[in-house]
């Protein structure tokens, strides 16, 4: 049920938004041009990459993936290690594991063709309510209610919704549903996203350029920038740990692969301690991967994850040429590190060990 927080947009609101989109749509590598048919594989790939990630960050990864794996069948046939390596640096690595699993399922169960219904898309790995709705709408022209962060902001301002997020999500979705047209639902979904990204921005929204300005309750009240309301965030807990960078005399470094499940699952890393809130630096070298003379490097590596902040102390050592890798670890040529699935925090560790900020 829609709460009557403000008058509803005029009946032609969706048409005005689509007219604006026809003139002002962003040109994006995964977006079909006028007269073209959307490629479901490109739409799906982009939507997975765009989860909690900016368009600017995604574009080079999207182009690289599409060049390397032009079809979902190509991606399904790729080794998971290659997919994780290509994803390195984009973050939220469970997306990459789900991406690969989804590609394999589409090939195995759907003959390499994405299903076109929201319900069937929801059954695929990594496709939650938003992503399934976006793919159904944009790739297949199905009417679906597509609500991302940009759309939440547009709707919250349009109706001046006082309820704070995340509690407001159901109310926002109901308003978005009422506004979504039966015709051109994919273009409408992308228009709403573009509106939030380029006009109805978090700071200093360009209300005078907005095709929905005459419908916007927050603009009429003069407080658009204060929406959406958001509940106060709890302080992010902090964890700490140590990482050990071991160079061998032949120009190789010691790496291992993290367990497939959990944070950074399946990614490569420098051996280290567990990351704990009660980490004791004095005991760090008890976790050293080899019995070598480690030197503690000045400073530390900082990384912020979704649910905690991390501080890593880095220790470095040199290993003799004949040194074998311990169980679960491997020696990797330094020149091949770019091909490893090293997450951002481990790339920071390597830069720190090289004396680079």
Secondary-structure element order, as H and E? HHHHHHHHHHHHEEEEEEEH
Which architecture of the largest domain would the CATH scheme give at its second level? Answer: Orthogonal Bundle
Question: Rounded to an integer, what's the Rg over CA atoms?
Answer: 24 Å
CATH topology of the largest domain: Endonuclease III, domain 1
Structural class by secondary-structure content: alpha+beta
Query: What is the end-to-end distance?
Result: 53 Å
Q: Residue-averaged pLDDT, rounded?
A: 94
**The named CATH superfamily of the largest domain:** Hypothetical protein, domain 2
In what range is the share of β-strand residues?
5-15%
Q: What form results from the Cα inertia axes?
A: globular
Descriptive report:
It is a single chain. This protein has 357 residues and is α+β, with helices and mostly antiparallel strands. The protein folds into two domains: 13-226, Hypothetical protein, domain 2 (Endonuclease III, domain 1, Orthogonal Bundle); 238-353, Nucleoside Triphosphate Pyrophosphohydrolase (Alpha-Beta Complex). Helix content is 38%, strand content 11%. It contains 13 helices and seven strands. The protein has helices at residues 13-24, 40-49, 55-68, 72-77, 80-87, 94-110, 118-122, 129-140, 149-158, 169-179, 185-198, 217-221, 344-353; strands at 238-248, 252-257, 268-269, 295-296, 301-304, 309-319, 329-333. Strands 1, 2, 3, 4, 5, 6 and 7 form a seven-stranded mixed sheet that branches. Strand 5 and strand 6 form a beta hairpin. The radius of gyration is 24 Å and the shape is globular. The relative contact order is 0.11. Residues 1-5 have low confidence and may be disordered.
